[in-house]
Design brief:
The chain is mainly alpha-helical. The chain contains three helices and two strands. Strands 1-2 form a two-stranded antiparallel ribbon.
C-alpha cells in the first residue's frame, strides 16, 4: 500500500527500513526522520504523517530497547535547582518593608 504519494513510499518500504535499522543497531531509537533518511528521501507536505506513524507503530521491532526505557524514572524537576545543590541556594529575599 502506498503511504506517501509525494515521495512514493509504501508500507513495505517503511517496514524494510525499520528492519534494516534495527538489525544494524539494536539500540537505536527509530523516528520518521530516520526512516526517510534511510530511504534516501525527505518529507514533503506531511499529509501522510498519520498513516506513516500508524504503519511504523504496527511494526513489532519499533519498540524502545529495554536499557533505554525509563531513563528519567529517578529524576524529578524539583531535585535540581539550576544545577546547584540545595545548600548553595541564595535565600529568598522579600521586598516588602
Amino acid at each position: 500500500m502506498i503511504i506517501c504519494h509525494c515521495t512514493h513510499i509504501s508500507d513495505h518500504d517503511i517496514h524494510a527500513a525499520i528492519e534494516w535499522m534495527r538489525s544494524a543497531d539494536p539500540e537505536t531509537i527509530i523516528t520518521p526522520g530516520k526512516i526517510y533518511h534511510a530511504l534516501g528521501k525527505t518529507a514533503d507536505c506531511g499529509g501522510c504523517m498519520p498513516l506513516f506513524l500508524d504503519t511504523m507503530r504496527s511494526n513489532a521491532k519499533l519498540s524502545v530497547p529495554a536499557q533505554l526505557q525509563n531513563l528519567r524514572a529517578g529524576k524529578t524537576q524539583e531535585s535540581v535547582y539550576e544545577g546547584r545543590p540545595q545548600g548553595h541556594r541564595l535565600p529568598q529575599q522579600s521586598t516588602a518593608p
